[in-house]
Specification:
Layout lengths: L1 E3 L18 E5 L10 H17 L4 E4 L5 H14 L8 E4 L1 H11 L7 H8 L12 E4 L2 H6 L8 E4 L9 H8 L6 E4 L8 H6 L5 E3 L2 E3 L4 E4 L9 H9 L6 E5 L3 H11 L4
Parallel strand pairs: 1-2, 2-11, 3-6, 3-7, 4-5, 4-6, 7-10
Antiparallel strand pairs: 8-9
């Protein structure tokens, strides 16, 4: 009996392929769609960041503390290093994400080949010691970001905007049309993040209606969840399981993926 999660992170080793399964239990989050190529997304991401800076706004990124935050830092460092975006202050406003980033730095045995090469070249892939990147822990530090002058990037949990410091940032900044909200992960039904993705306006935060004038940009390519193509590719090599169970997916996604699974040899 094997549990399969085909999710991958660009900085971690790819999951091992499981074969000859009796039972396949698989996620189905993006069972009805495909992700954009990450390199294509990076081009659009660079433009979004530069456009926001040009209009004097701030970029807010709700991100899961474990995995997603570190991946975003990795991509932002690459964009800056390649001069695709200007040097801009970056704040990681999440005590858990700060601690998780420290843990990532302690376990290079989990990295993929590309990330190991960066380390060998003396680079700090997760920016735990990069100039211009600050990790905030205290509540006072977090509150002070509201008065930060000029443009900056604030990465904060939770990833679906349901809890944590990101809700305070959104309540105070969604009504500013100069700002940008970057959605870089799956947003479950009925969450604040999902409501923002679907264009609900105003949204309710801490019991108060908040108008949404900030630009909302969605980049699903950063998701740690596999898309339909990746799920089918993984499943095709698992043999002929007697039973297949879909988890972590909405009804439509599971129905479409089930139909595609039925076509596998």
């Amino acid at each position: 009996f094997d549990i399969v999660n085909a999710a991958t992170q660009s900085d971690l080793k790819d999951p091992g392929q499981l074969t000859n399964l009796d039972v396949l239990l698989t996620e189905s989050t993006y069972g009805n769609r495909l992700h954009d190529e990450i390199k294509d997304v990076e081009v659009h991401l660079a433009k979004t960041i530069k456009d926001t800076i040009d209009r004097g706004g701030k970029i807010f990124i709700p991100a899961f503390a474990m995995g997603r935050t570190q991946e975003i830092l990795y991509v932002l460092k690459e964009l800056m290093g390649d001069n695709k975006i200007p040097e801009i202050p970056i704040f990681v406003d999440s005590p858990l994400a700060t601690s998780a980033t420290e843990v990532f730095a302690l376990h290079p045995e989990c990295y993929d080949k590309d990330l190991k090469e960066l380390l060998e070249e003396g680079n700090d892939p997760f920016c735990s010691s990069c100039n211009g990147i600050q990790f905030t822990r205290s509540v006072d530090e977090s509150k002070a970001l509201q008065n930060f002058p000029g443009s900056c990037i604030i990465i904060s949990a939770s990833g679906m905007c349901e809890f944590g410091r990101i809700r305070h940032h959104l309540k105070n900044n969604l009504d500013n049309g100069k700002n940008t909200l970057l959605i870089v992960g799956y947003q479950a039904e009925n969450t604040l993040g999902r409501k923002l993705v679907e264009g609900e306006n105003p949204v309710n935060i801490f019991g108060d209606p908040v108008s949404v004038y900030a630009e909302v940009v969605i980049y699903n390519a950063f998701s740690g969840h596999a898309d339909q193509k990746e799920l089918l590719s993984f499943a095709a090599e698992t043999g002929t399981p007697k039973s297949v169970f879909f988890v972590h997916g909405e009804g439509e996604s599971q129905e479409v993926l089930s139909e595609e699974f039925s076509k596998l040899d």
